[in-house]
Amino acid sequence: MSTDASPRPDGGELLARTLAAAGVEHVFALHGGHLESFWQGCVRHGLQLTDFRHEASAGHAADAYARTTGRLGVCVITSGPGFTNAITAIANAFLDGIPVLFIVGSPPLRDAETNPLQGGIDQIAMALPSVKWAHRVTHTERIPELAAQAVRTCLNGRPGPVLLEVPIDVLHIPVDENLVHPPTGLGVRTAPAPAPQDVEAIIAMLRAAERPALFVGNGIRLAGAEAELLRFAETSGIPVFCGGHGYGALPYDHPLYGKDLALLSLLGMMGQPGVDALLVVGARFGMFSGGRLGTPVAPGVPIAQIDLHVPELGRLREVSIPVLADAREALRALADAAATIAWPDRSAWAATATGLKHFAAQLYGAPDPEATPVHPYHAVASIADAAPPDAIYVVDGGEASAWSHMVLRASASWQLIGAGYHGCLGVGPGMAIGAAIAHPGRRVLQITGDGAIGFHIQEFETMVRHGLPVVTVILNNRLWGMSAHGQDLVYGRERRVICSLPDTPYEAVAAAFGCHAERVERLAELAPALRRAFDSGRPACINVLIDPDEMHPSMPAMVGADNPAENEIMIPYYDNIRL
What is the C-alpha to C-alpha distance for residues 421 and 463, in angstroms, rounded to an integer? Predict the structure, then answer.
């Protein structure tokens, strides 16, 4: 085994010291013998190892670390089943554009086509559709060079995951230090700025509009563009909205923050005119922005779009001004230009548009503290009231996520995370652990459903073992809620299939792992239970019985049941089929 003083370092030493040189501090992992020399290298170079009970959770933790910091997340897992267990986390990071370096072991190169243990599959080929780049290292001396390329690829351009496979023999072989290929370009960070004519065109489009809006997403968080966004919004007076990502891009109570772009659809329902010009920054058109249906921004509205990924420019909507640029650099240029000109008074429009974020509070009235089971809206509202203002929320599940996004008040872009376009359940435990590691001074609350918690409930033990006081609240309706309510809308309640769950005492499972744990059956019990959970200083689980008959109001639209035509077949989650 090599040491720092050895003239012949092995591959584990080379990999660990390259990651340390890249500024990596945390590695999320699950032990595997293929990687023994790397684990030793981590100890020598001060890389903190956080180990899990399932590789998917390790991957989700690295995702959350990157998602809430903008820094590189690193997940290291063993060959074969370790890799296949992590494919879901790889895909989740890919679809949301999160910079995570996945390092995976494999059997010795010399044993190819011998039916080796935890081999026999082409991990590179399996990963390629869901990563920016995947590569198998074949020579130990090239580990630093190729690891540096992996880091650059993760972080530059549109961020995203990379897979680096290091076979066990390549990782354990010692090499002469003089033969090692150095890690070049570790500090490369690109941030392309918009062309001056594009800035002028965007300013002219927005000034000419009567009801302009900004639509922002993950690009704001990952570029660290919050300050520039605030400056441009305040200078121009234009309200800001987000989709499935982008919560907290502006503080929740800021008069120019309108929360979900989808809320603008309410204007048409109320007979009021909608947006007449839209600037999209670091956000994508898709499910979270109305899909193909044209809502909440009507067809024909002029759109300017700023993104680092060319395929997003013009996806689903015609774009008048496409700009390939970094969100922070683009907003800095726009804010500078905006400060030199006079803007129309749009305070009335901004007040109308952003006031829609309070609409949900009008739907459910005053809570009944003694009602049992608890209404899910009031349960999440009680959680929001009890949580510290700088708490980090990790949301998981189907309708549990929908209720959480409706209610929670995020005032910073790292404050509310969860799965995105992958629609992945079970991300919560890993993401909560990753967020707690990334932000050790803040409280982390995981809000999840009783279905989702079953995917990785064993990670309660990981929280206990690493001393991470994550508070988990399970919204327990004894259902796969989105599935059950979707079937109710499409086929009728009497035709529900495979969507029931038992009233499992999840708090007892968490307690067995060493967590503080409670069961809540009335709303009045929830806030005191949360206080006790916070005060315990331990990982905690609160199992809240919520009303299984309460359906999230987005569900009819989600399954095409809000206003189907006679010649349409309802298709859950996608556009209906027209006959």
Answer: 27
Write down the catalytic residue from 34, 375, 405, 456: 34
234 noted as active-site residue: no
374-426 pLDDT, tens digit each = 999 999 999 999 999 999 999 999 999 999 999 999 999 999 999 888 889 99
Q: Among this protein's residues, is 34 annotated catalytic?
A: yes
The β-bridge relationship of strands 303-307 and 321-324 is parallel
CA distance 202 to 216: 15
Dihedral sign, Cα of residue 7, residue 10, residue 14, residue 20 = negative
Same domain, 115 and 56: yes
Question: What is the chain's length?
Answer: 579
Q: Which of 157, 274, 355, 423 is catalytic?
A: 423
Residue 39 lies in a domain: yes
Instruction: Answer yes or no: is 563 within a domain.
Output: no
Q: Is residue 159 located within the same domain as residue 202?
A: no
Both 15 and 43 in one domain: the answer is yes
Q: Which tens digit of pLDDT belongs to each residue from 222-270?
A: 999 999 999 999 999 999 999 878 899 999 999 999 999 989 988 888 8
Question: What domain range is 248 assigned to?
Answer: 196-358
Q: Give the helix/strand (H/E) hosting 447.
A: strand 444-449
Catalytic one among 11, 12, 32, 55? 55
Q: Is 25 a catalytic residue?
A: no
**The one catalytic residue among 12, 41, 118, 378:** 118
Examine the domain organization and report whether 206 and 324 are in the same domain: yes
Number of domains in the chain: 3
Between CA 490 and CA 217 the distance in angstroms is 32
